[in-house]
Write a structure and sequence with these properties.
Blueprint (H helix, E strand, L loop, with lengths): L2 E4 L2 E4 L4 E7 L7 E8 L6 E6 L5 E3 L7 E5 L5 E6 L8 E9 L14 E2 L3 E6 L1
Parallel strand pairs: 2-11
Antiparallel strand pairs: 1-3, 3-8, 4-5, 4-9, 5-6, 7-8, 9-10, 9-11
């Protein structure tokens, strides 16, 4: 499985961005997907994840503002980010792993495949 993330950029606080993460079509339907982010000097943190059946999980700091989704073919995952804050500035990484590797939001296992990251910068 390979991942290609896109959609990052510079946005003013209160604005919106949508990130995309496209997976290779051959196996993506059997995989869970999600987003983590890492800001300078901070630990990596869960942003959102979506299981194969559509169950979602969000990090506490983005609940109510971000929405994760997948297209019907389950080859592309999206992260709609609204009401962006300065503290959302980070590099966002998408990941995927087999659906049987649970919990679906945990990325500690060696089965996880990461995308290349996309920078999101929120300005005041």
């Amino acid at each position: 499985v390979q991942l290609q993330a896109s959609g990052g950029g510079l946005v003013q606080a209160g604005g919106s961005l949508r990130l995309s993460c496209k997976a290779s079509a051959r196996t993506s339907s059997s995989y869970t997907m999600g987003w983590f982010r890492q800001a300078p000097g901070k630990e990596r943190e869960l942003v959102a994840a979506i299981a194969r059946v559509g169950t979602t999980k969000y990090g506490d700091s983005v609940k109510g503002r971000f929405t994760i989704s997948r297209d019907s073919a389950k080859t592309t995952m999206y992260l709609q980010m609204n009401s962006l804050k300065l503290e959302d500035t980070a590099v966002y990484y998408c990941y995927t792993k087999p659906h049987w590797d649970v919990p679906f939001w945990d990325v500690a296992s060696r089965n996880v495949v990461w995308g290349q990251g996309t920078q999101v910068t929120v300005s005041s």
